[in-house]
Amino acid sequence: MIFLMNMKSEVNTLQTAWKMLIWLLIAQVMVSFVGRSLAPLTILIGKDLSLSNTQIGMLPAALFLGQSLAAIPSGLLVDRLGTKKQLFGTIALLGISFVLISLANQFYLLLLIVVVGGGAYAAMHPATNRGILYWFPQRSRGTAMGIKQMGITAGSALAALLLLPLAKEIGWRPALLISCLVLLAVGVLVSYYYQDAADSMINKETLFNRKDFREDLQAIVKNRKVLLLSISAMGLQGAQLCLTTYIILYAFEKLEMTLVLAGLLLVLAEIGGSIGRVAWGAISDKFFAGNRMIIMFIVTILTGFCALVCAVLLPTTPLLVVLLIVFLFGFSISGYNGVWMTIIVELVQKEKSGLATGVTITISSWGVLIIPPMFGYIVDASGSFSNGWLFLAVLMVVVVLILKQTTKQRNMKGGDGVVD
User: Fold this and answer.
1) How far is CA 47 from CA 172, 246, 256, 378, in A?
2) Which CATH code fits 16-192+212-407?
């Protein structure tokens, strides 16, 4: 009888966990729909404000500057406040900041507001990661994290699919404003229906305890595997933003596609990333027994291969070949994030998962601050997108070397949260 009662309790908990995952996914989709709307809209924003390729590369850099500045504080807060409260605050701040972006007329004012929006966007990651960590056991956590992370690329794909055509008809400013209003409405629903796990151990008493924060931060930073993996993610994050930021311009200018078709390439890349985030997580769970570092190597090698192919594509290249390469590019470089986040939260104690997420996002965000503007500068200076893609291919070689150093720090098989 006790056994049956325990079984029933586990089933009910698992059902609740999947319901909460749905709300986390909805929140992630809408936050990404707005937060990553700059990528599909850059060509219209660039024309409106007369921006160079280098300046266009500064837009995602500004978003991730805000993310890097806010990642650790937001990670600390979610470990004290819980996922539910931070979800609502994140959605509200992001919606308001992007409303202001739709009203900005000066480039540097626009950059400043994007930084604020990036700070709000950053708070989403530790909040949702913590929710996954507490609701799901290790054996299914990679799959759950992949589904949740799929919301990022799904939201970005929806932005390219819906916002770009809408922006062509009514202008990028009204289109962005409408998307912000939808985000705020969905945020109210998510904050009402989502619930924190019963054992999430919210520590309100130590919310402003600086000594505990310093000790927790030092423990995470001294974790060599967390540090090396975060450094490797700098290159991967930067490459990912290069793809989503420049694929439309590349297809429009280099491959001589129409603007609509070029926009569909971004949609295809994000669809590939959405599938990849679920697939890579499930593969690591089912076939590699939680050894997720293997996936990181595969993703990096595939990304370097796709970058090399993009460097040699021509306007006469068959469309099917272009579509396959762009899909594979997105499947790899936009699909690894769930695996990366799962490794990070499994390397630390559960109650420090939010802070660990903040630390890794802070470090990895520097790749986004540096690499997309460098890509744009290389294209501007050489007059060729091919040199930009070759730069990314070389970067992936460096990432592989860093990942090799990471695997030397003992076996990377998924655990359940222990700081070395």
Assistant:
1) 11, 15, 18, 20
2) 1.20.1250.20
